[in-house]
Design brief:
491 residues, alpha/beta, Rossmann fold, five-stranded parallel sheet, 5 strands, 6% strand, disordered C terminus
Length: 491
């Protein structure tokens, strides 16, 4: 039995709400897998109610009025109209003691049909039962249920992810003696979600997430499933190029979908903007990736996952597909706005400033590899317009971010793009110098202050700037200055 951890205060709140009688319902909201169902089961067993009932709403039951709340209905109410069903159920629960003696849990209440939602709201409003409703965060909930909270008849309880200490106790229960490094990795991947942790520790248990994923995969067409599995296991797939030829060697493919993707050549968009459409473009080292992005875009749109769809659209733009800006703009999601800005910057003739701004925003959200790509693209734009200092700073940022991906090589992130005038130490100190004093940098990097100042002086000379004020201008507003001469190396 998976132990109950980290919800003692929420459990006490539910039991107190029932005992004091101050509210008639508690709306428990949480993300999937965080533990709202387990909390409700623990609570209802210790409430002290004479009679309890459990109702679970599902998408299938939502097509049949009152199907989700069938455990509450009198047998004779099955053939009655909606109003008669509500009246008959109300009389039944009133005869069993009403709110003082009856407790009802409605799991996944956001999936209730309108008739069932009206019945549950009536029971709580008329104090015929104490009602605990579990809903998933981000899902629409019937207005009749939300009104209970707004009118003061109920209380909303938001479940946050479990703390690290609680996750450690769950790990100890399932795998005592787990090493500290493995614990940190489990906590990071599970992100406070006990269901995700259980899947990580126990694997493919019957009825678990693995079974759900497999059932979804089984519904896909064979070619689509092949692409999805290929991507999950080995994206991107490097394809060797024959010496002296521009066309990629055809890798083993299965199905007409994969073969047609290779035949199309999968050209990548270059970073020179639409004005250079007639010039030679770089070809894909991974011909299957544009196909994967297209498949993911379609699946994400059908599944109502706007963030995933926006990233897939952005990948298509990176890989040379026409920019679908209308669809990107229509995605009202933070990731959609990020992707639209990055795609616009890539399609512009210059756009170096926009590329760096998009890179900063992607880095803030943790998309470091995509940010490194955009900094590389910005460096090429700066170099084309002979903004040497801006070029080197953009490349320095790209090197800093791509250090976490030492073997990464993408169409926008090539080894030649990362050549810079600055040494590793000069880059490291320069990127800190805009916001920190030399003494602060020395303490952080465990260097002498004189060493920091010497590296700064060399970096300033290479970039053609005189001090921190010009450095801040370059970092805050790329391409605003024309300082710096041509570099001594070719990138």
């Amino acid at each position: 039995m998976w132990p109950f951890e980290g919800r003692q205060s929420e459990l006490a709140l539910l039991r107190s709400a029932f005992a004091t009688g101050e509210v008639d319902t508690v709306l428990v909201s949480a993300a999937a897998g965080v533990g709202k169902t387990r909390l409700a089961r623990e609570a209802i067993t210790g409430l002290g109610a004479q009679r309890t009932a459990w109702a679970t709403a599902t998408r299938a039951a939502a097509t049949i009025p009152f199907a989700a709340v069938a455990p509450l209905l009198p047998d004779a109410a099955a053939r009655a109209g909606s109003v008669d069903v509500i009246r008959a159920t109300a009389r039944r629960l009133a005869g069993r003691g009403g709110r003082r003696d009856v407790a009802v849990v409605v799991d996944d209440a956001h999936l209730l049909d309108d008739a069932s939602a009206a019945l549950v709201a009536h029971l709580a409003r008329e104090r015929l039962a104490f009602v605990v409703m579990n809903v998933r965060v981000g899902e629409p909930v019937a207005d009749a249920l939300l009104r209970l909270v707004r009118d003061g008849r109920g209380e909303q309880l938001r479940l946050d992810p479990l703390r690290d200490a609680d996750m450690d106790r769950l790990i100890d229960h399932a795998a005592a003696g787990t090493a500290a490094r493995a614990r940190r990795r489990l906590r990071r991947i599970a992100a406070g979600n006990p269901l995700a942790l259980r899947e990580l520790l126990h694997g493919a248990e019957p009825g678990g997430l693995t079974e759900l994923v497999v059932s979804r995969l089984d519904s896909l067409e064979p070619d689509v499933r092949f692409v999805v599995e290929l991507t999950a296991c080995a994206e991107p797939l490097p394809v060797p190029v024959r010496p002296g030829r521009r066309r990629a060697v055809r890798p083993p493919q299965r199905g007409a979908v994969g073969q047609s993707a290779v035949r199309r050549g999968a050209q990548f968009a270059d970073d020179r903007g639409p004005g250079h459409a007639g010039r030679r473009r770089r070809r894909s080292a991974c011909p299957g990736v544009p196909l994967v992005a297209a498949v993911l875009r379609r699946l994400a749109r059908e599944a109502g996952m706007p963030g995933v769809e926006a990233l897939a659209l952005y990948d298509l733009t990176r890989l040379g597909a026409p920019l679908d800006l209308a669809r990107l703009d229509a995605i009202d999601h933070e990731i959609g706005h990020l992707a639209a800005g990055a795609a616009r910057a890539l399609a512009a003739r210059d756009g170096a400033c926009d590329l760096e701004e998009a890179a900063r925003r992607l880095h803030d959200r943790g998309f470091d590899l995509l940010a490194a790509e955009l900094y590389c693209a910005a460096g090429r734009r700066h170099r084309r317009y002979q903004r040497w200092a801006d070029c080197d700073l953009a490349r320095a940022r790209a090197i800093q971010l791509s250090a976490a991906f030492p073997r990464a090589q993408t169409p926008l992130l090539q080894p030649g793009d990362l050549i810079t005038l600055l040494t590793f130490r000069e880059r490291q100190i320069l990127l800190l110098a805009a916001e920190h004093t030399s003494a602060d940098i020395a303490g952080r990097l465990r260097l002498a202050v004189a060493t920091v100042n010497n590296n700064l002086a060399r970096a300033y000379h290479k970039l053609g700037i005189s001090g921190r004020s010009q450095l801040r201008e370059l970092l805050e507003d790329p391409a605003s200055t024309g300082v710096g001469g041509p570099p001594n190396v070719t990138a």
